[in-house]
Structure formats: structure tokens, C-alpha cells
Amino acid sequence: MKKSKKTRSYLRERRYFSEDFRRSRVKEYDEGQTSVSEICRVYGVTKSAVYKWIKKYSPHYQKSITKVVEEKSETQKRLALEQKVKELEQFIGRQQVQLSYYEKLLATAEQRYNIELEINSDWKSSNGFSHTDPNTK
Q: What domain range is 27 assigned to?
């Protein structure tokens, strides 16, 4: 006689867990009161189901979002450069006003004292650099 092969079919009991139940298990997990393995063992749930719950209900789990960090830093660099340009424009404006004042002062002195004044290029300018003839020692 032929031996017939017995097939065993295991029908897994399908259970439904309420949303409140799932949320409370995820909250316990998030607060560190329990682990995924412990939830699986105590409630007879598969690990994949618990991880799906965590993915769905945990406030700590977020889908990864790719952020462009350079965009912000480029914006910051641009703003810093714009600020520097503004400061330099203000400095140049003050220097031009000061130069205009000195020119008027020289013109007034020439008229008042009836002398001709020349601007000496060897004077130190207001920025601290001296304008000297490279041929002299």
C-alpha cells in the first residue's frame, strides 16, 4: 500500500486590534516601557505588524525628508555679502563727503589767504596706507 502524504495546513487565526490598542502599544514603546519583542510575545503579534504600527502612530517616526542644506547656507552667504556691500557703500559715501569737505576747505583757504595749495601725494590717507614714491628710500 501506498502511504499517503498527510498535509497539514495551519490556519492562522486572524485577529483585529483596535486603533486605540495599537496606539497604546506604540506609546508604551516610545516611552521605553516595553520593547518590540515584548509586545510580540505578550500579545501574540508579529514584529512586522508592530513595526507597521510604530511607523503609522509614532510621533518620533517620520519619513525621511531630504533637505538641501546648501540652499540655506548659500542664502546666508548672500545676505552676509549684501550686508558687507551695504557697509562698504556707506563707508565710501562718508569718505566722499569728507573729501568734498576738505576740497572746499582748501578752496576757502586759498581764497582767504591768497595762496595756492597743492595736495601732497605723500600724505597718509585716512585708511592708514601711505602713498610714497617707490624710488625714494
A: 19-57
